[in-house]
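REQUEST ID: PR-0412
SUBMITTED BY: lab tech R.K.
PRIORITY: routine
TASK: structure prediction, single protein chain
INPUT:
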Amino acid sequence: MSKGRFIINHVGYLPDAPKRLVYDGSAEEFKIYRFIDCRLEEVFTGKLTLFENDELDENRKTVE
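STATUS: complete
OUTPUT:
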């Protein structure tokens, strides 16, 4: 497992659930998966963007 990776689980009412967001800290995109028919299926891919006053620390890959 790579450093900085996190997983967010969200369970809600259909058709919004269940979903999983996975980000490994090394890319500028993220993917959201839904658990459908006993398997995870990718349902959305997006780009990470900074807010107006945020700056990315390239050495640590964190938002300051």
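NOTES: The beta strands are 6-10, 19-23, 29-36, 39-47, 56-57, 62-63.
REVIEWED BY: pending
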